[in-house]
Amino acid sequence: VTNGGKTTLAGKLKKMLPNCDIISQDDFFKPESEVETDERGFKLYDVLDALYMDEMVKSIHNWIKSPTSSSVGTEKPQNTCDNLKYTEDIYILIVEGFLLYNYEPLNELWNRRYFLTLPYEECKRRRSTRVYQPADTPGYFDGHVWPMYLKYKNELEENASNVVYLDGTKSQEELLCCVYSDIMQELKRLRE
Protein backbone atom coordinates (compact mmCIF):
# COMPACT_ATOMS: atom_id res chain seq x y z
CA VAL A 1 0.00 0.00 0.00
CA THR A 2 1.17 3.52 -0.68
CA ASN A 3 2.73 5.13 2.39
CA GLY A 4 2.64 1.83 4.25
CA GLY A 5 6.27 1.98 5.42
CA LYS A 6 7.91 -0.19 2.75
CA THR A 7 10.96 2.01 2.17
CA THR A 8 11.45 2.69 5.87
CA LEU A 9 11.28 -1.02 6.73
CA ALA A 10 13.65 -1.94 3.90
CA GLY A 11 16.17 0.67 5.01
CA LYS A 12 16.10 -0.52 8.63
CA LEU A 13 16.51 -4.14 7.55
CA LYS A 14 19.47 -3.22 5.35
CA LYS A 15 21.24 -1.78 8.40
CA MET A 16 20.69 -5.01 10.34
CA LEU A 17 21.37 -7.70 7.74
CA PRO A 18 24.68 -8.88 6.34
CA ASN A 19 25.61 -8.08 2.73
CA CYS A 20 22.22 -6.55 2.08
CA ASP A 21 21.14 -4.36 -0.80
CA ILE A 22 17.85 -2.78 -1.83
CA ILE A 23 16.22 -2.33 -5.21
CA SER A 24 13.29 0.06 -5.08
CA GLN A 25 10.48 -0.06 -7.61
CA ASP A 26 10.16 3.73 -7.31
CA ASP A 27 13.47 4.01 -9.19
CA PHE A 28 11.81 2.53 -12.29
CA PHE A 29 8.98 5.00 -12.88
CA LYS A 30 8.69 6.27 -16.41
CA PRO A 31 8.96 10.03 -16.91
CA GLU A 32 5.70 11.94 -16.52
CA SER A 33 5.47 12.43 -20.30
CA GLU A 34 5.26 8.64 -20.79
CA VAL A 35 2.62 7.99 -18.11
CA GLU A 36 -0.93 7.66 -19.42
CA THR A 37 -3.70 9.99 -18.32
CA ASP A 38 -7.28 8.78 -17.86
CA GLU A 39 -10.48 10.53 -18.89
CA ARG A 40 -10.60 12.41 -15.55
CA GLY A 41 -7.13 13.83 -16.11
CA PHE A 42 -5.44 11.54 -13.54
CA LYS A 43 -1.91 10.40 -14.34
CA LEU A 44 -1.98 6.61 -14.02
CA TYR A 45 1.06 6.05 -11.84
CA ASP A 46 -0.40 3.16 -9.84
CA VAL A 47 -0.31 0.68 -12.71
CA LEU A 48 2.45 -1.53 -14.08
CA ASP A 49 2.52 0.39 -17.37
CA ALA A 50 3.85 3.44 -15.49
CA LEU A 51 7.04 1.54 -14.68
CA TYR A 52 9.99 0.15 -16.61
CA MET A 53 9.39 -3.32 -15.19
CA ASP A 54 11.71 -5.06 -17.69
CA GLU A 55 14.54 -2.83 -16.47
CA MET A 56 13.70 -3.67 -12.87
CA VAL A 57 13.78 -7.41 -13.61
CA LYS A 58 17.10 -6.96 -15.41
CA SER A 59 18.54 -5.12 -12.39
CA ILE A 60 17.44 -7.91 -10.08
CA HIS A 61 18.91 -10.60 -12.35
CA ASN A 62 22.18 -8.64 -12.58
CA TRP A 63 22.32 -8.46 -8.80
CA ILE A 64 21.62 -12.19 -8.49
CA LYS A 65 24.44 -12.98 -10.97
CA SER A 66 26.95 -10.87 -9.11
CA PRO A 67 25.87 -9.61 -5.68
CA THR A 68 29.43 -8.82 -4.64
CA SER A 69 29.85 -6.33 -7.48
CA SER A 70 26.62 -4.57 -6.60
CA SER A 71 26.40 -1.50 -4.41
CA VAL A 72 26.36 -3.61 -1.25
CA GLY A 73 28.47 -1.93 1.37
CA THR A 74 31.24 -3.68 3.21
CA GLU A 75 30.18 -2.28 6.57
CA LYS A 76 29.18 -4.73 9.25
CA PRO A 77 25.49 -4.85 10.17
CA GLN A 78 24.52 -2.90 13.27
CA ASN A 79 23.10 -6.03 14.84
CA THR A 80 25.99 -8.23 15.94
CA CYS A 81 23.99 -10.94 17.67
CA ASP A 82 24.73 -14.64 17.29
CA ASN A 83 21.98 -14.93 14.68
CA LEU A 84 24.38 -13.44 12.16
CA LYS A 85 27.44 -15.59 12.70
CA TYR A 86 28.41 -17.60 9.64
CA THR A 87 26.57 -15.25 7.28
CA GLU A 88 29.54 -13.61 5.60
CA ASP A 89 28.85 -15.57 2.39
CA ILE A 90 25.14 -14.81 2.39
CA TYR A 91 23.85 -11.97 0.23
CA ILE A 92 20.38 -10.53 0.69
CA LEU A 93 18.46 -8.44 -1.79
CA ILE A 94 15.38 -6.59 -0.60
CA VAL A 95 13.11 -5.55 -3.43
CA GLU A 96 10.56 -3.04 -2.30
CA GLY A 97 7.64 -1.57 -4.16
CA PHE A 98 3.90 -1.42 -4.53
CA LEU A 99 3.30 -3.67 -7.57
CA LEU A 100 5.85 -6.42 -7.15
CA TYR A 101 3.69 -9.51 -6.83
CA ASN A 102 1.42 -8.64 -9.74
CA TYR A 103 4.22 -8.86 -12.28
CA GLU A 104 4.66 -12.48 -13.33
CA PRO A 105 8.38 -12.38 -14.31
CA LEU A 106 9.24 -11.46 -10.72
CA ASN A 107 7.18 -14.15 -9.02
CA GLU A 108 9.74 -16.91 -9.52
CA LEU A 109 12.42 -14.88 -7.73
CA TRP A 110 11.05 -14.38 -4.22
CA ASN A 111 12.25 -16.31 -1.19
CA ARG A 112 9.94 -14.34 1.10
CA ARG A 113 7.01 -12.02 0.38
CA TYR A 114 5.69 -9.32 2.70
CA PHE A 115 2.70 -7.12 2.02
CA LEU A 116 2.01 -4.08 4.18
CA THR A 117 -1.63 -3.11 4.58
CA LEU A 118 -3.29 0.03 5.88
CA PRO A 119 -6.92 0.94 6.39
CA TYR A 120 -8.30 3.57 4.01
CA GLU A 121 -8.37 6.49 6.46
CA GLU A 122 -4.80 5.96 7.68
CA CYS A 123 -3.49 5.52 4.16
CA LYS A 124 -5.23 8.70 2.99
CA ARG A 125 -3.93 10.62 6.01
CA ARG A 126 -0.33 9.50 5.38
CA ARG A 127 -0.58 10.18 1.66
CA SER A 128 -1.79 13.72 2.36
CA THR A 129 1.41 14.49 4.29
CA ARG A 130 3.72 13.55 1.39
CA VAL A 131 4.87 15.79 -1.42
CA TYR A 132 4.99 14.13 -4.82
CA GLN A 133 6.43 15.31 -8.13
CA PRO A 134 4.13 15.75 -9.91
CA ALA A 135 1.79 16.63 -7.05
CA ASP A 136 -1.37 14.63 -6.46
CA THR A 137 -4.33 16.38 -8.06
CA PRO A 138 -7.55 16.82 -6.07
CA GLY A 139 -9.46 13.53 -5.93
CA TYR A 140 -6.46 11.50 -7.11
CA PHE A 141 -6.27 9.31 -4.00
CA ASP A 142 -9.95 8.32 -4.10
CA GLY A 143 -10.20 8.28 -7.90
CA HIS A 144 -7.05 6.34 -8.72
CA VAL A 145 -4.62 5.43 -5.92
CA TRP A 146 -6.98 3.62 -3.53
CA PRO A 147 -8.98 1.78 -6.25
CA MET A 148 -5.72 0.54 -7.83
CA TYR A 149 -4.46 -0.64 -4.44
CA LEU A 150 -7.68 -2.61 -3.88
CA LYS A 151 -7.53 -4.06 -7.41
CA TYR A 152 -3.95 -5.28 -7.08
CA LYS A 153 -4.46 -6.50 -3.51
CA ASN A 154 -7.43 -8.59 -4.67
CA GLU A 155 -5.36 -10.02 -7.53
CA LEU A 156 -2.60 -10.85 -5.09
CA GLU A 157 -4.98 -12.61 -2.72
CA GLU A 158 -6.38 -14.67 -5.61
CA ASN A 159 -3.09 -15.63 -7.23
CA ALA A 160 -0.12 -15.44 -4.88
CA SER A 161 0.84 -17.83 -2.16
CA ASN A 162 3.25 -17.56 0.73
CA VAL A 163 2.57 -13.87 1.32
CA VAL A 164 2.97 -12.56 4.86
CA TYR A 165 0.51 -9.73 5.42
CA LEU A 166 1.75 -7.05 7.80
CA ASP A 167 -0.38 -4.47 9.56
CA GLY A 168 1.15 -1.12 8.58
CA THR A 169 -0.46 0.58 11.59
CA LYS A 170 1.91 -1.29 13.91
CA SER A 171 5.01 0.52 15.10
CA GLN A 172 8.11 0.49 12.91
CA GLU A 173 9.89 -1.46 15.65
CA GLU A 174 7.20 -4.16 15.73
CA LEU A 175 7.26 -4.56 11.96
CA LEU A 176 11.05 -4.62 11.90
CA CYS A 177 11.20 -7.26 14.63
CA CYS A 178 8.62 -9.44 12.87
CA VAL A 179 10.31 -9.34 9.46
CA TYR A 180 13.84 -9.58 10.83
CA SER A 181 12.91 -12.68 12.86
CA ASP A 182 11.32 -14.25 9.82
CA ILE A 183 14.39 -13.55 7.67
CA MET A 184 16.65 -15.06 10.33
CA GLN A 185 14.50 -18.22 10.27
CA GLU A 186 14.76 -18.31 6.48
CA LEU A 187 18.55 -17.92 6.62
CA LYS A 188 18.74 -20.72 9.16
CA ARG A 189 16.56 -22.93 6.96
CA LEU A 190 18.72 -22.18 3.88
CA ARG A 191 21.87 -23.12 5.87
CA GLU A 192 20.48 -26.52 6.86
From TrEMBL:
Xref: SUPFAM superfamilies: P-loop containing nucleoside triphosphate hydrolases
Keyword Transmembrane helix part of the UniProt annotation: no
GO biological process, one term: NAD+ metabolic process
CDD domains to which the protein is assigned, alphabetical: NRK1
GO molecular function: ATP binding; metal ion binding; nicotinate riboside kinase activity; ribosylnicotinamide kinase activity
GO CC annotations on file: cytosol
Keywords (A to Z) from UniProt: ATP-binding, Kinase, Magnesium, Metal-binding, Nucleotide-binding, Pyridine nucleotide biosynthesis, Transferase
A UniProt-annotated Pfam family: AAA_18
Pathway(s) annotated for this protein in UniProt: Cofactor biosynthesis; NAD(+) biosynthesis
Reaction it catalyzes: beta-D-ribosylnicotinate + ATP = nicotinate beta-D-ribonucleotide + ADP + H(+); beta-nicotinamide D-riboside + ATP = beta-nicotinamide D-ribonucleotide + ADP + H(+)
Entry similarity comment: Belongs to the uridine kinase family. NRK subfamily.
Protein name as catalogued: NRK1 kinase
Source organism per UniProt: Pampusana beccarii
